[in-house]
Amino acid sequence: MVHAQFDPTARRELALAAVEAKTVKDLSWQEIADATGFSVAFVTAAVLGQHALPEPAARAVAGLLGLDEDAVRLLRTIPTRGSLDGTVPTDPTIYRFYEMLQVYGTTLKALVHEEFGDGIISAINFRLDVKKVADPEGGERAVITLDGKYLPTKPF
Q: What residues make up the domain containing 107?
């Protein structure tokens, strides 16, 4: 049976335990994802409390990290999503994404609406990918792909 959570506390605590186990076992997010057959972005988000995993994937993650049956149950539960508390993020990496949306949010909205019409881009029917590429001017660049299904607003 599918169950939903309404208090994110248990998933936050599980995320802390999972990250600790990941660190102790010196595993990468990719290695954890490989055990499930799902993408690294989806599995990372699930372990950090933002998605539910199907039972086989939850068991694979828990087994790899040495977590108990309660962890399997929590990993299968639909979480209360949204890991940020509504204040301006202070972590420098997360803040840069916040800054990007502050600078380009209205531009993205205008371009999406011009291209698709009134509606939203789903964060549920969604894919995320992060790649490191060489910068022709030296160093490295991050290429982040946000691939969400467009959902038009429907009058009723």
A: 92-152
